[in-house]
Design brief:
The chain is of the alpha+beta class. It contains 22 helices and 16 strands.
Length: 611
C-alpha cells in the first residue's frame, strides 16, 4: 500500500531514492495499472519470506499465480484505496519549508478614478470636506474653487499612501534615522524622508533648479498611481515620446524602472497606436495540397488581373483606350498563361477564360480573389451548370461532365498574401513589360505580341537545377511541363533516324516526363520548406477583440473601428481569417489587414481588487 501511495503522487514529493524509481516506473507504465494484492495471495512472498526448492515444488501459487487470476477480470478482488498515514516515516516524504507572506491590499482610493487629475481633484475635495467639517474651522471654511495649494497637498497625500504600500520597509528604516538596506531598490538613490515622503537624495543639491527637480518623490513603477501619472504626462505633452516623457515626469516624480514604464505607456496608448498601427500576424501556414501534389499542367490555376495598359487602334485620330492582362498561373508548376482583355467586366473575363480553356484545357480548380468580375463569372458559370443539369439530368454523359465541373475558390477579401503565387506572377510580368515598353502606347497587335513573349520568358524561369553537375547549365522550368523544354530555347533536333532496336519515341517521352516530375518532387518541393516571414507562433485572436481594419487608400486615423465577430480556424489550429463587425456591417478579412487595439479590459482592475 505504501508503494501504491508512492506511484499515485508526483516524484518530487518523495526523497531522492524513492523519487528516481517512481519517476522511471511512471514513465514506462500507464497511470492506474497498479493494484494491491494481499500477502496470502502474493506469489512473490513465497521467495521473499524464505523457501527451499523442495518446498517450492508444492507451492502451486508460485507457478500458476492466485486462483482468482484465472477468472474474469471483473471477478477479481477490489483493492481498497487506502493510503498510508500522512506522517508515516515509511513514506520517505521530502520535507518542505513554507514561508507565508502577508500582502497588504491596495487602497481602493486608486481604483475609483483612472485619470490622475480626477484622482487628485477627488482627494482635494475630500480634504476640503474634512477641513470644513471640523468644529475649529467653522470660521475659516474653504469655499469657491480648489486652489493650487489644495492640489499640491492632495498630490502629497496620494504619494504618501502609495509609498506606504510599496516601500514600507524603507520608510521604517528612514524613520529610525537608519539608511535603507543595500538590497533595496532605492539604495542607489540615497533616499531621504521629508514630511513622511521618500525623496531622492541625489547629487544635485547645488544645481540651479527647482526643489522638486533636485529631490523628486519616489514612486513604484507597478503602483496604479505611477501608471496614471505616466499616462497623464503622456497626454499632456501631446503624446510625447519616451525621452521627453521621462524628462517631464522626473521634474517632480521619480518612478522606478521608468524606461520600461514609459515604453509600456506609449504602447498602451490608443491614439499613438492609431497613428502608427501594427497589423496582426500568425505563423505562416503550410502549403495547400494543390501546391504540393503532382497534377496536370493548368488543372489547378490561380487568376488575377494587372493593368491598365493603354493601346490605340491603327486608324487616324484613334483614341487611347485602356486594356488589361489576365494572368493564369498553374498552382503546381508555376506555368503562366496570359490573355489580353478589353476591360474588367465579367463578360470580358469569361471570354478570356474560354480562350484559356480552348488552349490549355479545362481546369478542375480556379482560385482567385473576390473581385467583382470573378464573383460575377462564378455566378454565371454556376447558373450555366445548373441549367444544363436541369435540362438533361437523365443523361449519363451530362452527369459525368457535371462531376468534372470547374470549382471556383475565393480567398478572403483584400488578402493578397493568400494568393502570393499569382501576385508574384503579376509582379514579374510588370517588371518585364515596363522595362521593355515603358510609357509607350502600343497597338492591340503589338500589345498581344509583347504579352505572349513575356509569357514565354516567364515559363522559362528556372525552378531548380536539373542536376548537381557543375557543367550542366540546364534548369527545370515551367516550360518543361508544357513542351518538354524552356519556351525560349532552340528546338531539339529531329529524332526520326533512331534505329528500331532503340526504345520508341513514346517511351523516351514518357521517361522524360517522369524524370521531370521526379525532379519536381525531390528538388523543387524541398525548396518550399523555408518560411521567408511570419516564422513565429503568435497567440490567436479572440472573439470580441477591438481592432482597426486596414485600408490601403486611407490614413490610419480614418480606418474603421470594429470588433471580432467570428474567427475561422485553419487545419493547424491557427486563426488567419476573421469576420469584423463595424458600424457599416460585417467584413471578412485576413489578420494581415487588422490591427489589434491596445485597450485595457477590466481584467487589470479586477486583479487589483482581488489582490
Amino acid at each position: 500500500m505504501i508503494v501504491k501511495c508512492w506511484l499515485s503522487s508526483l516524484p518530487c514529493r518523495w526523497q531522492s531514492f524513492v523519487a528516481n524509481r517512481v519517476s522511471e516506473i511512471q514513465h514506462i507504465t500507464k497511470k492506474g495499472v497498479w493494484n494491491h494484492i494481499a500477502g496470502a495471495d502474493n506469489p512473490a512472498d513465497i521467495i521473499s519470506r524464505g523457501s527451499t526448492p523442495a518446498q517450492l515444488q508444492y507451492q502451486p501459487r508460485w507457478f500458476e499465480g492466485p486462483l482468482w487470476m484465472r477468472q474474469q477480470h471483473s471477478t477479481w478482488p477490489k483493492s481498497a484505496d487506502v493510503m498510508s498515514p500522512p506522517n508515516s516515516p515509511l513514506l520517505e516524504e521530502k520535507p518542505t519549508a513554507s514561508l507565508p507572506v502577508h500582502t497588504k491590499p491596495l487602497n481602493n482610493l486608486f481604483l475609483r478614478k483612472s485619470s490622475f487629475p480626477d484622482l487628485v481633484r477627488m482627494v482635494a475635495w475630500i480634504r476640503r470636506f474634512i477641513h470644513n467639517a471640523m468644529p475649529n474651522n467653522r470660521t475659516r471654511k474653504r469655499l469657491n474653487y480648489l486652489s493650487s495649494v489644495e492640489y499640491d497637498e492632495a498630490v502629497i497625500v496620494l504619494v504618501r499612501i502609495a509609498q506606504h504600500e510599496s516601500f514600507a520597509e524603507e520608510i521604517a528604516s528612514l524613520s529610525k534615522g537608519e539608511p535603507v538596506k543595500a538590497s533595496s531598490k532605492l539604495s542607489a538613490l540615497n533616499p531621504r524622508l521629508v514630511n513622511g515622503i521618500i525623496q531622492v537624495g541625489g547629487r544635485l543639491s547645488h544645481a540651479p533648479v527647482s526643489e522638486s527637480r533636485k529631490h523628486p518623490m519616489i514612486i513604484h513603477h507597478q503602483h496604479p498611481l505611477t501608471k496614471s501619472i505616466m499616462q497623464y504626462y503622456h497626454r499632456k505633452l501631446f503624446h510625447a515620446g519616451q525621452q521627453l516623457l521621462i524628462a517631464a515626469v522626473r521634474e517632480r516624480f521619480w518612478p522606478t524602472r521608468i524606461r520600461g514604464l514609459a515604453r509600456w505607456t506609449i504602447y498602451r496608448c490608443v491614439q499613438c497606436f492609431r497613428n502608427k498601427p501594427k497589423v496582426h500576424e500568425q505563423l505562416m501556414a503550410d502549403l495547400p495540397s494543390v501546391r504540393v501534389t503532382p497534377a496536370a499542367v493548368f488543372s489547378k490555376v490561380g487568376i488575377d488581373f494587372c493593368g491598365p495598359f493603354y493601346i490605340r487602334y491603327p486608324v487616324r485620330r484613334s483614341l487611347v483606350v485602356k486594356s488589361f492582362v489576365c494572368i493564369f498561373v498553374c498552382l503546381t508548376t508555376k506555368a503562366v498563361h496570359l490573355e489580353v482583355v478589353s476591360d474588367l467586366s465579367t463578360q470580358a473575363f469569361l471570354a478570356a477564360f474560354k480562350r484559356f480553356v480552348a488552349i490549355r484545357g479545362k481546369p478542375r480548380l480556379v482560385m482567385c480573389d473576390n473581385a467583382t468580375n470573378f464573383v460575377g463569372a462564378n455566378r454565371e458559370l454556376e447558373e450555366l451548370r445548373m441549367q444544363l443539369c436541369n435540362q438533361q439530368f437523365q443523361h449519363t454523359m451530362i452527369k459525368s461532365s457535371e462531376e468534372e465541373g470547374i470549382a471556383f475558390k475565393f480567398i478572403p477579401p483584400r488578402s493578397p498574401n493568400f494568393g502570393g503565387l499569382w501576385e508574384a506572377a503579376v509582379k514579374s510580368f510588370k517588371n518585364h513589360f515596363r522595362k521593355t515598353i515603358g510609357a509607350r502606347t502600343l497597338t492591340y497587335d503589338e500589345l498581344n505580341t509583347t504579352v505572349q513573349q513575356v509569357a514565354a520568358i516567364l515559363n522559362s524561369r528556372p525552378l531548380t537545377p536539373m542536376s548537381n553537375d557543375p557543367y550542366d547549365y540546364s534548369a527545370l522550368t515551367p516550360g518543361h511541363f508544357l513542351v518538354g523544354r524552356p519556351l525560349t530555347a532552340v528546338p531539339e533536333p529531329d529524332l526520326q533516324a533512331i534505329p528500331e532496336n532503340r526504345p520508341s519515341l513514346w517511351h523516351r517521352t514518357q521517361s522524360f516526363v517522369q524524370q521531370l516530375w521526379r525532379k519536381w518532387k525531390t528538388q523543387y518541393l524541398s525548396d518550399l520548406h523555408n518560411r521567408t516571414k511570419w516564422t513565429r507562433q503568435r497567440n490567436n485572436i479572440a472573439v470580441g477583440t477591438m481592432v482597426l481594419i486596414k485600408e490601403d487608400n486611407l490614413p490610419p486615423q480614418k480606418w474603421q473601428l470594429g470588433r471580432i465577430a467570428e474567427v475561422f480556424i485553419s487545419a493547424d489550429d491557427n486563426i488567419r481569417v476573421v469576420s469584423v463587425r463595424t458600424k457599416d456591417g460585417v467584413y471578412k478579412r485576413s489578420i494581415s489587414k487588422i490591427c489589434i487595439l491596445p485597450i485595457r479590459d477590466n481584467d487589470e482592475k479586477s486583479h487589483l481588487k482581488a489582490s
